[in-house]
Amino acid sequence: MSAGTFDWAAVDVAVPRPSGRLPGVSMAGFRQRVPAAVDIAMVAHPSVTLLLDLSEGEGLVYGAHGRHGRGSVAVGLHPGELRAGGRVGECLQIRLEPVAAAAVLGPSAELSGTVASLDDVWGPDAARAEDRLRAAASWDERFAIAADILGRWLGTRPPVDPEVAHAWRRTLTGRGRVRVERLAEEVGWSRKRLSARFRSQLGITPKRAARLVRFDHAAHLLAAGHAAARVAIESGYADQSHLHREVKAFTGLTPTAVAAAPWLAIDDVAWPASAPTRRPCSGRNPTSVSTLPSLGPPTGRWS
Q: For the HTH araC/xylS-type domain, which residue ranges apply (predicted)?
């Protein structure tokens, strides 16, 4: 199934209740009612992503940098061209803001620009987590289990420097348009020190982080149907050619292809910025699972 024809109407999406969310952690569950072969281009996002394959049988297959793997996977902050597919029945996706990722996975530098098997990242704990999640009776229970697992990791490692955490938050809220020199001034460090500490703790330089956050903002504008020329201006790119180069660098795709990417089309549902009222539907837990009867390019708010 090509990236342009993926049908979200055949997928149930579950999101946690607001009360069960951890700082810096977002989760969404996906259940394909009739497991079928899929092939989706994943779009880079300013978070470390965990994809936990809860399917029976063939399950998740992923490919990046010319290499392929199978099963649950951890995706670094800037993986380049990345595709996910296979016969996926159920999958739990967890997004970790870089500050949270450093606590859950260790120094994010180890995942910088990489896609790694979750077994390689968590060792035997990965298989145990998958078994617990598969055995759960509802998505609410799965989210609670995942929060428990992540909560045990949070706090077991030294937190990132407050200055680094501040620089990341400002980069995110500024949509990647705050200069590194300004960030260094705000925390009272030199640019060189901030860059070194930021990279060692989050696995990415402040400049690269700004590019990633700015790209993410632009990608959501493209998915919302805005013209590339307008997106370039609103996102702070020099011109449309600059936008095209950045989109290509982060995804290997053109702006037109990114605008139609299924991975972005689901963002407003799977990753709500707030907690909107959900339509009940069929599924394990009607109170937390939303069916998408007809989902085109999202409009309005973006996350």
A: 162-261
95 in a domain, yes or no?
yes
Measured CA to CA, the distance from residue 69 to residue 260 in angstroms comes to 25
Q: Which phi-psi region, left, alpha or beta, contains residue 179 (left: φ > 0; alpha: ψ -120 to 50)?
A: beta
Amino acid, res. 268: D
Query: Per-residue pLDDT averaged across 261-270, rounded?
Result: 78
Q: For residue 45, what are the domain limits?
A: 8-158+263-291
**Measuring CA to CA, which residue among 194, 201, 217, 206 is closest to residue 267?**
217
Tell me how far the alpha carbon of residue 126 is from its chain's centroid.
Answer: 19
CB atoms within 10 A of CB 181: 12
Q: Which CATH number fits the domain that encloses residue 19? A: 2.60.120.10
Sequence-separated (6 or more) residues with CB below 8 Å from residue 112: 76, 77, 78, 203, 204
Specify if 105 maps to a domain: yes
Q: How far is CA 108 from CA 61, 77, 175, 262, in A?
A: 23, 9, 21, 27
Q: What is the pLDDT of residues 151-195, one digit of tens each?
A: 888 777 788 999 999 999 999 999 999 999 999 999 999 999 999
The answer to whether residue 132 sits within a structural domain is yes
Does 21 reside within a domain? yes
Higher-scoring residue by pLDDT: 81, 110: 81
Residue keyed to tokens 């930021």: 198
DSSP string over 202-234:
HSS-HHHHHHHHHHHHHHHHHHTT--HHHHHHH
pTM of the model as a whole? 0.81
- Give the single-character DSSP code of 62: E
Q: Which residues contact 171 (CB under 8 A, 6 or more apart)?
A: 178, 183, 206, 209, 210, 213
Contact present, 65 and 36 (Cβ < 8 Å) = no
Q: What's the total number of domains in the chain?
A: 1
The CA distance from 119 to 122, in Å, is 5
